[in-house]
Amino acid sequence: MLTTSFLQLHTAMYEWNKECPQDLKRDLDVFFGSKEFLDRPDVFYKGMEDSSQKWVALISMTGLEETRAMLSRVLEYDFTQLHEARNGTFSKISAAPRMPLAAAYNKFLKDLVRDNKALKRQHKITGWTRELDRATEMIMLGPKNDATTTTTTTATSQREDPTKVKPRLLTPLEYAAAQHGMWFISVDIESFEFDHSKILEIGWSIHDSRLNKMFDKHYAISEYRHLKNGKYVADRRDRFIFGQTIWASLQDAIAVFQEDLTKATKRNPEGVFALIAHDMSSDEGYLRKMGVIFPEKMVKFDTLHLNGARAKDATMTGLGRLLDELDIENYSLHNAGNDAHYTMELFLWLVRNHEAQKVAAAQENLPN
């Protein structure tokens, strides 16, 4: 275990550069790229900064003092002593590779960038997996959840109590609401391709876990009846296949959506419901700009994220491509009502598939 104290290399070089007289800065840059500076064992390291959870380049405190002495000798300027108190704490520390040339040093820094990107992706996937676990538990606790509609609960839970899943990631309110039955509302917005502030359609689907039924709504906005997509996005406004399209003003359409959000809070005593979208930030952003007020106990699930957890991949996949990839039959996408319906189908597929995988894994681990 390394007990040496460290300072971020970037911090040290920044402080030396800041202190260096202007007429010596070029010589300082030359020194930082020299073999004399770079090719030293037990001086440079790689470590995880505890505060940011990012990989950083480090210099040991003994190497720091040695470098300061070298700088004073080469540049004939007495640099201020740097202290470890200038920096944070680090873990997972390992020695940097040998860097006899500036190219090797540059590769070391590029590798840190690459590792941090991979780490960021992994953190995303970890968070999304937690989101998928929560969504799965909410659906599996539904009163109409049975073998004909969803997979069974995990083998471990079946041994303890075959009728329930023990709460893990849900709050007590969410758990009670899921058991009682709740609304899951998926939403989609279609805007004008040449001016995204002009909303052409709003669609939403309601999955009632108490009844295990789905209801679909599609509103076409009358103010923009004269506007049509077709150059960059398909125009499918008149192809809603899960009910009747209602032409209404934006204000009236939003009022109906707001009313359904209020109804959702009354579906269980806890006032909990879930909003679902494929790219939540986009659709939620549109709705907030249109004046929608989201109830306090609303839970959000993004099927982009849930699929990222399933695929263990942070790549964002569009709704149509993902439906095709998972063999979920779909027609007339880019109609807000249809997209909302298929987003709900995707959501239910993802959580039931996730539960099925957990069941299979638990059964594999059971003793013979």
TrEMBL record:
Residues covered by region (Disordered): 144-164
InterPro entries: Gfd2/YDR514C-like (IPR040151), Gfd2/YDR514C-like_C (IPR048519), Ribonucl_H (IPR013520), RNaseH-like_sf (IPR012337), RNaseH_sf (IPR036397)
Superkingdom as given in the UniProt entry: Eukaryota
Single annotated GO MF: nucleic acid binding
Low complexity composition bias: residue spans: 147-156
Matching SMART domains: EXOIII
One GO CC annotation: nucleus
PANTHER family xref list: GOOD FOR FULL DBP5 ACTIVITY PROTEIN 2 (PTHR28083)
UniProt name for this protein: Exonuclease domain-containing protein
Species of provenance: Lobosporangium transversale
